Amino acid sequence: MSNKDKPEKSDSKEEPKTAVAADDEASGVSSFMSGLLSKLNIKPSSPKPKVLEEPTVECLANYIKSSKCKNIVVMAGAGISTSAGIPDFRSPGSGLYSSIQETYNLSDPQIIFEIGFFRQNPKPFYALAKQLLPTEFGPTTAHRFVQLLHKKGLLLRHYTQNIDGLERKAGIPDDKIVEAHGTFYTSHCTNFTCKKDYNFDWMKEKIQSDEVPKCTKCDSVIKPDVIFFGENLPTKFFTCASSDFDKCDLLIIMGTSLVVQPFASLVEKPSEDTPRLLINREAVGTPDASLLGQLLKKFGGHEDFDLGLASQFIGKGLNFESPTNRDVALLGDCDDGVRKLAKILGWEEELDKLKNEAV
Question: What pLDDT does 97 receive?
Answer without folding.
Answer: 65
